[in-house]
Design a protein that fits this description.
By secondary structure, this protein is mainly β. It has two helices and 18 strands. It has two domains: 32-187, Jelly Rolls (Sandwich), CATH 2.60.120.380; 199-307, no CATH class.
Length: 307
């Protein structure tokens, strides 16, 4: 069932002697889904961009994708990207097929973007001439968004996905991003919005030490990532949970959670990767990934919808 099935229903029984209608019964449909995913961090260059991976299931999902640059300066004190480009790729492998790309959001006309943003209740870009970027595309399965500056300058950016087609058959189920994590602007922050009338279970992870092991074999990683979960209400951000070491949530329970969403395992129980399983009511949330003690290094942040 889908939310539009909710309503009052009656049964009509007919016979040669006439028809009888039952009293109305109310059908309520419980549901929730992710309607907005975002990542805020620094994009360093065209060869080291901010990369946001995501997964949709159930068929093509029409998304509005945006990369903030100049417009972000209204909300943060750091150095924002001057002229962001957003590019949609069909694979997590760098150099994969570019499905769509946009430089200046107003270049393709602003009517559709403005209408979708107004309907979603999100912040609009201030003017059509701004150098922020946006595009629409129907995605099915795994895809990635790259955000980088057209002039190859580093800067803070916010990359967003909005589910704008209202289809209940397809849904966003996963967000991930890997980037350098430091202090100030170099925090790695994932945001998500839950819509519906029931709680949603989510797996949240901040992974770094695991990425140094096979098959990844990466270097320059955070030794001890820490994740903090916040609920956003208006202009107020309230921390509601956190995790330092993933095994503190129970090794068996956490590994069952990993397997349920097909996330790669954390094989060493003593690893200092971070993970949380949470049940959240509809609303707006952010997850911050920090280096414990202010340490710096590369790390990955992940958000999974759980069954």
């Amino acid at each position: 069932m889908v939310p539009t099935d909710a309503g009052d229903y009656s049964v009509v029984v007919t016979s040669p002697g006439g028809a009888v209608t039952s009293a109305a019964a109310k059908l309520e449909v419980s549901w929730s889904r992710l309607v907005n995913l975002s990542v805020r961090s620094v994009s360093r260059s065209q060869t080291d961009p901010l990369i946001m991976g995501f997964v949709s299931k159930g068929g093509p999902k029409t998304l509005l994708m945006r990369a903030w640059g100049p417009a972000l300066a209204r909300f943060v004190a750091g150095t924002t990207m001057e002229d962001p480009v957003v590019a949609l790729h069909d694979t997590i492998v760098r150099g994969g097929l570019v499905l769509a790309q946009n430089d200046n959001w107003g270049s393709g006309g602003t009517t559709r973007v403005d209408a979708d943003i107004a309907r979603m209740g999100a912040y609009a870009f201030p003017e059509a001439a701004s150098k922020d970027s946006a595009l629409h595309y129907a995605v099915d399965g795994l895809a990635t968004l790259y955000a980088f500056d057209k002039a190859d300058k580093p800067g803070l950016t916010l990359v967003e996905l909005y589910d704008v087609d209202d289809s209940q058959a397809s849904r966003l189920v996963n967000l991930s991003a890997r980037n350098h994590v430091g202090g100030g602007d170099e925090l790695l922050v994932a945001g998500f919005s839950i819509k519906g009338n029931q709680a949603m279970r989510l797996l949240l992870r901040g992974v770094a030490p695991r990425l140094g092991l096979p098959p990844f074999g990466l270097g320059g990683l955070l030794a001890d990532p820490l994740i903090k979960l916040y609920k956003i209400e208006g202009q107020v951000s309230t921390q509601i949970d956190s995790n330092d070491d993933w095994a503190s949530g129970g090794v068996v329970a956490m590994r069952q959670a990993f397997a349920s969403v097909e996330a790669f395992d954390l094989p060493e129980e003593t690893s200092r990767d971070a993970a949380l399983v949470v049940s959240l009511q509809p609303g707006l949330y952010t997850v911050e990934l920090h280096g414990k003690g202010g340490a710096a290094g590369d790390a990955m942040i992940e958000v999974y919808e759980m069954p």
